[in-house]
Amino acid sequence: MPELPEVETIRRDLEKTIIHKKIVKVKIYLPQLIKIPEVNQFIIRLQGNDIEEVRRRGKYLLFFLNTDDYFVIHLGMSGQLSYQYQSSELPEKKGKHDHVFLLFEDGSQLIYNDVRKFGKMWLLSKEREMPAIELLGLDPFGLDFSFEKFFNILRKSHRNIKSLMMNQRKIAGIGNIYANEILFIAGIRPLRKASSLTKKEAERVFLSIKDVLSSAIQLRGTTMVDKSYRDLDGNWGKYEKELLVYGKRKGKCPYCGQSLKMIRIENRSTFYCCACQK
DNA sequence: AAAGTAACCTGCCCGC
DNA sequence: TGCGGGCAGGTTACTT
Asked: What is the pLDDT, as a whole number, of residue A126?
């Protein structure tokens, strides 16, 4: 589910709520979620420590502790974090898909909920970068995300532009919804070979990436009708109203009125207008 | 070696 | 009303 704008929205909210709070208790009901280290070690190294900083890399959230450790969450397709301000001592009111509870000193708690269980968590020493994160490509909001670098990535690629944009090793954070929207606004067909884009076309894609992602962050992400994405307070993102093509089966192009095409690229639904996208 | 497919999961929607 | 198939915002491992 969550792509860069949703993860960034959650990160910003976490920054306002859990920073400098001491974790007094950790409860894990789904051990398979924890990839590194063993569940018991994971709990022991979290309990009694403060979260000092929350960062984002691509779709990963990184929580830096006051110790030598940091922990990492990837929300997968359906992972959600929610923050409960007032709560009882023990997090015993467990919903069906609540898998992890972090109880803070002030009685508030952070709950990880995940219907499909594709999410993952790690706890690592700060000296060690997580392999999956090390392999990530440029972050669209990183200082090093320049047009020159972007254009070079396109030129070296042998793949279509949509697959390239969704390849986390090239550009980190773009998923299926935003890839569709970005290409529509840039006027580029998703199946165009990335290396075939002219400099002007690449510039349009580059600018659309920044535009679409920052507008989506502004509106706190996209919650589709299935309502699976929520922010820390349980509220929906409001970018769905802005979507121009994604999810619009039998829809019309908002620019020219022609029927939108729906194809599959790497088994993901892909929407575009064959008149407006070249 | 790139590209396709299956796997990991649950829930919802649709057609029969 | 029920059942089967397809689909969902992601990633990885395995197969062609």
From this structure: 94
